[in-house]
Design brief:
Chains A, B: Belongs to the class-I pyridoxal-phosphate-dependent aminotransferase family. Alanine aminotransferase subfamily. The structure is a homodimer of 422-residue chains. Chain A is of the alpha/beta class and 422 residues long. The first copy, chain A, has 14 helices and twelve strands.
C-alpha cells in the first residue's frame, strides 16, 4: 500500500522467521514474548510446519478476544474463527459452501453495485448467479430496502437466492453504514433466509465525523432472537486498516450459527489446502493483539498507527472536497475505507467519441486521463453503476503531497476534456 | 516437517521482513544482497505490497534459470512460470481451466491409485470426474501403459478425459519413475490428447541407487516434435526437498505450450486472488537460487542440505528394510519422496472384526495400532488401493532415533495383532 510498515509487526515476523534473533538485545521484550508465544503454537516450534487448517489455536483465540472487545463484550467463540490467506481466500472458502443447485436452479448471491470484483469473479467461477442491488448514491451509497426487494424478486425468477454480500465500510464507495441501515438489512436477510456475508475488512478505516463502524455480528446479536441465530460470516484482513500488509496475506473469517453439518464440510474443504501461510497468521495476531499500554512497543505502535489513520483521514477529505470543487464531478463524503467513487457528467460528444472507439464512455475518459497525465483511475463500469451514469474509482492511498499534485493534474485535465467535447 | 530450518532461507526472511536488519553486521553479505534484490522487486520496496499475481518478476526469472539448469540447458521462459502459495494452490489454479463441460460430458482427470488426496478433493470440488489408474506394485509402483489404457477407455464412456496426473517421485508410494516409463506416459498422453500434470514436488528427494529424477519437461522436449509441443504443467513446492518449509506456502507452476487464450484466462483467474504470499515467494527464490560456492553462506547451506538429505536417505532404507523384516508386511524400495506404502496381509479374523465395527480392514488395523502404541499411520483406503489388498502410508520424516523406536513398537504390535486374529 506504499505506507510505512508497523515496526511491531515486522519485528515479530523477523524473530519468528529467524529464531536466533530472540536473543538479540536490540528487540523489545514484548516483541520477543509475542514471537515466543506464536512459535509455541507452531509444531516443532517452527513457522515452517503446517498448522491446523483453520490456523494456530492461540491466534484464533486472540482474534476471538479482539472481536469480543470490538463488539463491547458480545461473546466470540474462537472455534468460529478461521484464519485465511487474506480476506479473499476466506470469502471464497465460505462462498464455496453455497455451490449446490436445488430444484435445477443455480444458487444466487446478492452483491452491491458498484461492487468489489472478487465477488463477481468468484460467483462466476463457482457457476452461481449474481443478483445485483444498486447502492443509493443520493443516500451516500446506503442500502435501500426497496431496492433489495426489487433485486431479490427479480433474481428469484431464475435462481435460488442464498446469500447477501454487504461491504461495510464500502469498496469502492467509501460509505459507512448506519446502525439503522444494518438493522434493516438484517431483517431483510432474515425474511428472505439469506446468509449474510459481511465484508468488514475496512473496519479500522472510518474517518467522517458522526460515522462509526458497527459490525453485523454486534447488531444482529443485539437485535436478539430470531435474528441472533442467523448465519453470518464476517471477514477481516491484514491488507487494510492502518497496517496495509497486503503482500503478507493474513485474514480471518468469523462464521456463526452455521448448521453443524455445513460447518464440518467447511472445515473439511479448507483442509485440502493444508493451512494459510503461518507468517500471514502471525501478522493477523499482531493486528488483533497489538502492544498494550505500558509495554515497550506501545508508544511506537501508537504513533505509527495514529499517523497512518490521521493522514488517511485528511486525504479522505481532500479527495472528496477537490472533486466536488470541479464542475461536472460530484463525490460523496468518503466516510471510510480507502476509495472515492465520484460521478462524472460526460458531454454528449464524449459519449459519441467513446462509442466510435468501441469503449465505454467512462473507460474512454479514463484512458484519455491516463494518456495525457499519467494518472490512473478505474472506470466505474469495472465495478458496476446505474445505466446512464458514469463514475470512476480512485484511492486515497498516495501520500498527501503526491495526492495534491494528482488532484491538480486531474482538475486541469477534466476542464480541458469537457471543453474539447462541448 | 520437524527438520531444522535452512539458515540462509530464514535469514533472508528476517531481513526482508524487518529491513533495519540490512545494516546488522551479524548477517552475511550474500544474505543481504539477496534480501535487497527481493525488496527491489517489491513495490515500494516492501514485502507488504501486492506483487503481480504470477509473482515477482526477478523470482520468476530465478525459477526459470533453476529449471534450465536442472534440465541440462533446455530453455525455460520465465513467463511460463507462475508462483503460488504452495504447490496445492498452483495445481488447483491450473486444474480449474479444465472445468468446462463439452457435449454434456464432465471433464475427466486421470489420477493414480494410490493418490495424494488433493486430487480427488479438487476434482470433486470442481464437479469433474476422477478416472483412477492403478500403479503397479509389482513394478515398484511404476505406470503400466495397459492399465492407463484400461482406465481411459472405461472413463471415456461417461467423461471427456482431459488430463493425466503423475506424481513423481510418488506420494504416497515413494517410487521414482524411470526415463523409459516417462517416455511411454508422454506418448500415451499425446495419443489421447491429455494435458500432463507433473506433480514433481519431491524432485530433490531421490535416495535409491540407480534412481534419478527426470522431469517431464526434459523428457518431453528431448522426444522432439510432436511431443515437445504438448501442454504440460509441472509443480514444485518449498514444503518438501531438503527445506521442508510447509508453513511458509511457497511454490510454482511451469506451464508450457498452453493455447494463448487459455493462458490469458489462467492469468486472469489467478488475479482474483491478488498474489501469493510475498514471503512464500521469497522462500521459493532461496530454494531455486541457493548460495553459490565461494559465497559466505555456501558452506553452512551445503552442510545443512546434505545433512537433511543424507538422513532422509538412511531413513528411507531403514523404513523399507524394517517393514520387509516383519512377517506379513511387504514394502517396495523407497526410491524417493518421503513415504512408504507397505502392503499388509490381514488375517481373515481381522477382516471380520473390522466389518463388525463398520470399519475398512486397514482402518481397523490403523486404529488398533494407534490405540495400543500411539503410532499414527494412514490406512491405504485413504489413498486408494487394489480391491482386496491392504496398505498403509507412513513417513520417513521422524528423526532416526524416534523412527527406530516407532518401528520396533510397530513390529511388536503387528506380531501380537496377527496372533490375536489367527
Amino acid at each position: 500500500m506504499g505506507q510505512v510498515p508497523i515496526t511491531f509487526i515486522r519485528q515479530v515476523l523477523a524473530l519468528i522467521s529467524y529464531t536466533p534473533l530472540l536473543d538479540d538485545p536490540k528487540f523489545p521484550e514484548d516483541v520477543k514474548k509475542r514471537a515466543r508465544e506464536i512459535l509455541a503454537g507452531c509444531r516443532g516450534g517452527s513457522v515452517g510446519s503446517y498448522t491446523d487448517s483453520p490456523g494456530i489455536e492461540i491466534i484464533r483465540k486472540h482474534v476471538a478476544e479482539y472481536i469480543q472487545r470490538r463488539d463491547g463484550g458480545i461473546p466470540c467463540d474462537w472455534q468460529d474463527v478461521v484464519l485465511s490467506a487474506g480476506a479473499s481466500d476466506g470469502i471464497k472458502a465460505v462462498m464455496k459452501l453455497l455451490i449446490n443447485e436445488e430444484g435445477g436452479k443455480k444458487p444466487g448471491v446478492m452483491v452491491p453495485i458498484p461492487q468489489y470484483p472478487l465477488y463477481s469473479a468468484t460467483i462466476a467461477e463457482f457457476n452461481m448467479s449474481l443478483a445485483g442491488y444498486y447502492l443509493n448514491e443520493e443516500k451516500n451509497w446506503g442500502l435501500d430496502i426497496k431496492e433489495l426487494e426489487r433485486s431479490i424478486s427479480e433474481a428469484k425468477k431464475t435462481t435460488n437466492v442464498r446469500a447477501i454480500v454487504i461491504i461495510n465500510p464500502g469498496n469502492p464507495t467509501g460509505q459507512v453504514l448506519s446502525r439503522e441501515n444494518i438493522e434493516e438489512i438484517i431483517k431483510f436477510a432474515y425474511k428472505e433466509k439469506l446468509i449474510i456475508f459481511a465484508d468488514e475488512v475496512y473496519q479500522d478505516n472510518v474517518y467522517a465525523e458522526g460515522s462509526k463502524f458497527h459490525s453485523f455480528k454486534k447488531v444482529l446479536t443485539e437485535l436478539g432472537e430470531p435474528y441472533s441465530k442467523m448465519e453470518l460470516a464476517s471477514f477481516m484482513s491484514c491488507s487494510k486498516g492502518y497496517m496495509g500488509e497486503c503482500g503478507l496475506r493474513g485474514g480471518y473469517a468469523e462464521v456463526i450459527n452455521l448448521c453443524p453439518n455445513v460447518k464440518a464440510m467447511y472445515l473439511k474443504s479448507i483442509s485440502a489446502m493444508l493451512c494459510p501461510t503461518v507468517l500471514g497468521q502471525a501478522v493477523m495476531d499482531c493486528v488483533v493483539a497489538p502492544p498494550k499500554e505500558g509495554e515497550p512497543s506501545y508508544a511506537t505502535w501508537k504513533k505509527e498507527k495514529d499517523s497512518v489513520l490521521k493522514s488517511l483521514n485528511e486525504r479522505a477529505k481532500l479527495v472528496a472536497d477537490t472533486f466536488n470543487s470541479i464542475d461536472g464531478i460530484s463525490c460523496n463524503t468518503v466516510q471510510g475505507a480507502m476509495y472515492a467513487f465520484p460521478q462524472i457528467k460526460l458531454p454528449a460528444k464524449a459519449i459519441e467519441a467513446a462509442k466510435a472507439k468501441g469503449q465505454a464512455p467512462d473507460a474512454y475518459y479514463a484512458f484519455e486521463l491516463l494518456e495525457r497525465t499519467g494518472i490512473c483511475i478505474v472506470p466505474g463500469s469495472g465495478f458496476g453503476q446505474k445505466p446512464g451514469t458514469y463514475h470512476f474509482r480512485t484511492t486515497i492511498l498516495p501520500q498527501t503531497e503526491k495526492l495534491r499534485e494528482m488532484l491538480e493534474g486531474f482538475k486541469k485535465f477534466h476542464t480541458e476534456f469537457v471543453k474539447e467535447h462541448q
